[in-house]
Write a structure and sequence with these properties.
CATH class: Alpha Beta
Largest sheet: 6 strands, mixed
Structural class: alpha+beta
Distance between the termini: 19 Å
CATH topology: Ribosomal Protein S5, domain 2
Strand order of the largest sheet: 1-2-3-6-4-5
Number of helices: 2
Shape: globular
Number of domains: 1
Helix content: 25-40%
Strand content: 35-45%
Number of strands: 6
């Protein structure tokens, strides 16, 4: 396996990196950053037809969190976005940690994840 896409940015004063690899037709994502990058969760996502009945694509996810970690918020969003956009199964793992992170810095990290995810979708198309 080889990471085919890596996108980096500074968010909340820390490095944030997202890498992607293709495993057959599926996508593996790794998010890492902050003062202590780590594996805080694993998200498994599969695209499916939306329950709204309008023919749009949605995603179903399963999540495993390590106790006390909140990385699911960004990892799940990213996995579901890529799964819906590309119609592929996605597994995402990773973690971002900054001691004493403020609410404003959390929003900054979330916005950075959104921007990097858009870039990754474009590069994987």
């Amino acid at each position: 396996m080889e990471w085919i896409v890596t996108e980096c940015v500074v968010a909340a004063g820390c490095q944030l990196e997202i890498s992607a690899a293709l495993i057959g037709e599926d996508v593996l994502l790794c998010l890492q950053g902050g003062e202590r990058p780590h594996l805080g969760c694993v998200v498994q996502t599969e695209p499916r037809e939306s329950l709204s009945g309008d023919g749009s694509v949605s995603a179903t996810s399963s999540v495993l969190n390590f106790p006390g970690h909140k990385d699911e918020v960004v990892c799940r969003w990213m996995a579901e976005k890529i799964s819906k956009e590309l119609g592929k199964r996605v597994v995402c793992t990773g973690g971002f940690h900054k001691n004493g992170i403020s609410a404003e810095e959390i929003r900054e990290v979330q916005m950075a994840v959104e921007q990097l995810t858009e870039r990754i979708v474009g590069r994987l198309r």
